[in-house]
Amino acid sequence: MPLDPERERLADLERRSLLAEQARQQAHHLRTPLSVIKLISETLQLELFDDRAYHERLQRLLGAASTLSNGLSDAVRSTRFGDGPQKRLDALSVAADVVRLYGGRVVAPADTRSAALGVEIERDSFEAAVIHCLRLLGVGTDCGHPWGHRPVLEYREGDGKVILRLSVEGRPNPEIPSERADLKLMTLAAERAARDAGGTLTLTDESATFLLPLVAGSG
Amino acid sequence: MPLDPERERLADLERRSLLAEQARQQAHHLRTPLSVIKLISETLQLELFDDRAYHERLQRLLGAASTLSNGLSDAVRSTRFGDGPQKRLDALSVAADVVRLYGGRVVAPADTRSAALGVEIERDSFEAAVIHCLRLLGVGTDCGHPWGHRPVLEYREGDGKVILRLSVEGRPNPEIPSERADLKLMTLAAERAARDAGGTLTLTDESATFLLPLVAGSG
């Protein structure tokens, strides 16, 4: 079976999205203790200003805290992903392409006007988010089950929003090892993509539902 | 094109290997500044022992340093990958399976005795390492070039070692964006897998060469 360039492109987005999310989470969780260290060291340094020996040691301590802080920021910067400009995208057609590429089908109401599904979203992170959701539903990660279950994308719109619902047919009980760090990062990265577009993502065992605001003038 | 379960399994190993490597690198780089912070705070705490106000603040500072330290260790622990037991594997056949799965071919000398290629290595991390090397040679990552170049695995053995050399045919000038963080992590993870098996990995623009020691009695 030859490599599919489009699938490889998406796998690449997927990897980069996870690494970026891991770096962001790490930086986020370590920011609070790091500012405690900086704050205490700085006030001690002020109070012990006259004592040169203390001053120098606190200076070294602050230097080490800066190194830590820079290390965390560098990790975020070097894995930067999906922070390009948000553009108006046909969210349905982007999601549909990803779902079809993974062997899925799209359920469309008869009166679809594709132009009505314009959403302001960053493309790479949205594509990665759709794949993350498919993984979370078992596509390529459901080690305990036979292959062949099929992703389904349903959508509807209304009230200035579009709803894209992903699920998987033919698999009664997913066995996703949800404690795995990579799957947690998938959840976080997919939720972030929805949030960055002003929307939400709701994940259950059976489905992943994006609720995204339509851009003004397209409703 | 249906999903290939084996390729999806390898893509999963690949993702987990990268996340584990990122967590390890992060912990490694932040360990030194973190011990500076701990050491200085501890000595200050001893010296300022009589002053209760200082003591308490230094205690909070040390608490924050512990939180940081635990955060880094947790990230390493939760992404743990490829730290299962090393087992005796037929390294050639494992690498050959991966290369063939990515459309490649294997060049074998006529007098191959497969039993002679026993290497003590952890299977998941070795499989991930082989894919990382293919990516670094452009398979699925070479955005600037037409598809269709083909991986090649060559090997020879001698002197108690096996040499597995990966390259790609039909691609004169790879255009790999080597500054990308994910590709750096691929390099580090693949080198680590080789090192953990007591061997080395040599990466150039054109090839990736594993030099792995054969286990005693199989040479």
UniProtKB/TrEMBL annotation, chains A, B:
<dbReference type="InterPro" id="IPR036097">
    <property type="entry name" value="HisK_dim/P_sf"/>
</dbReference>
<protein>
    <recommendedName>
        <fullName>histidine kinase</fullName>
        <ecNumber>2.7.13.3</ecNumber>
    </recommendedName>
</protein>
<dbReference type="InterPro" id="IPR003661">
    <property type="entry name" value="HisK_dim/P_dom"/>
</dbReference>
<dbReference type="GO" id="GO:0000155">
    <property type="term" value="F:phosphorelay sensor kinase activity"/>
</dbReference>
